[in-house]
């Protein structure tokens, strides 16, 4: 077993009271610190308090200690061990030090996974969380944003959420009205992290086709041809984006053409939706720009 201890700290040009007030909003609806939507938000099953359970993404933990305005410790859920903690330390001159510590006992396999895959992403997520503290707390704002390493970018791309198959949503009224009797329909869905756009117009770049109809939460794209017509619906509902495709063939040539295309269609739909999802997440403003900072 190896003891992994990972420490990040930064001096913030703001009082510990200001930074502590930001810390107390972690995991709330107006959380100004979680580096979402590029990273999964920190979510708990209740208010920030000892005993609250939650995590970010697939990392699960519970609040084992909480000193309001001063620090939080999260213990990893079994079978994992160890903890990670975020603390504010007062300094002279109306400044403070923010420190994040992760400590865990790891076997060889876990250590290799941590070293090669998880650590670059962990380092980046923590530094971006501290970036948000500096953005929100310091009168001069963020001096120098953290720069991602190549490995962190690669690993984040690899583990980015993948679309899941779903039925055509009932709320996708434009898709349902597109054709009276479509010959094909499918739908792929991704969750929307806090900070991602909820306006369907922001998602029109998923497919480079003509806008056929719009609704408050749905955008319908499509093209018509002599052999087939197709429509693609982008629906925003229940904190998810859903890409629905419906196709109507007109003749034998259309049926033969789509018999070939449908083999590649699921892959291309997932690829384009996932690519747009990632692009819009990186383009979103940071949390302090979306919430009212406590000063």
Give a brief rundown of this model.
Helices cover 30% and strands 33% of the residues. It is an alpha+beta fold.
Describe this structure in words.
- With 295 residues, this protein is α+β, with helices and mostly antiparallel strands.
- The protein is 30% helix and 33% strand.
- The protein contains 6 helices and 13 strands.
- It has helices at residues 16-23, 108-137, 150-158, 173-178, 252-283, 287-290; strands at 2-12, 43-44, 53-56, 59-67, 71-76, 83-91, 95-106, 164-166, 184-191, 210-215, 218-224, 228-237, 240-249.
- A 7-stranded antiparallel sheet has the order 1-7-6-5-4-3-2. It has a 6-stranded antiparallel sheet with strand order 8-9-13-12-11-10.
- Strand 4 and strand 5 (71-76) form a beta hairpin.
- Helix 2 (108-137) crosses helix 3.
């Amino acid at each position: 077993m190896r003891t992994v201890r990972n420490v990040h700290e930064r001096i913030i040009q703001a009082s510990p009271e200001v930074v502590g007030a930001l810390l107390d909003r972690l995991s709330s609806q107006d959380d100004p610190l979680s580096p979402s939507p590029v990273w999964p938000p920190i979510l708990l099953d209740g208010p920030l308090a000892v005993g609250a359970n939650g995590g970010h993404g697939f990392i699960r933990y519970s609040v084992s200690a909480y000193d309001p305005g001063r620090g939080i410790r999260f213990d990893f859920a079994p079978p994992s061990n160890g903890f990670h903690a975020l603390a504010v330390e007062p300094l002279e001159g109306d400044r403070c030090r923010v420190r994040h510590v992760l400590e865990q006992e790891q076997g060889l396999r876990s250590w290799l996974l941590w070293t090669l895959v998880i650590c670059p992403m962990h380092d980046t997520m923590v530094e971006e969380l501290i970036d948000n503290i500096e953005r929100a707390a310091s009168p001069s704002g963020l001096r120098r944003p953290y720069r991602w390493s190549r490995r962190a970018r690669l690993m984040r791309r690899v583990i980015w959420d993948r679309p899941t198959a779903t039925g055509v949503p009932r709320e996708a009224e434009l898709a349902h009205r597109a054709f009276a009797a479509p010959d094909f329909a499918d739908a792929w869905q991704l969750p929307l992290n806090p900070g991602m756009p909820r306006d369907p117009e922001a998602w029109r770049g998923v497919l480079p086709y003509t806008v056929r109809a719009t609704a408050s939460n749905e955008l319908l794209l499509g093209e018509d041809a002599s052999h087939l017509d197709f429509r693609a619906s982008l629906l925003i509902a229940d904190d998810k984006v859903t890409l629905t495709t419906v196709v109507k063939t007109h003749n034998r040539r259309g049926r033969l053409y789509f018999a070939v295309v449908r083999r590649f269609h699921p892959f291309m739909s997932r690829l384009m939706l996932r690519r747009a999802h990632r692009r819009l997440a990186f383009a979103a403003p940071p949390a302090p720009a979306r919430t009212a900072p406590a000063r």
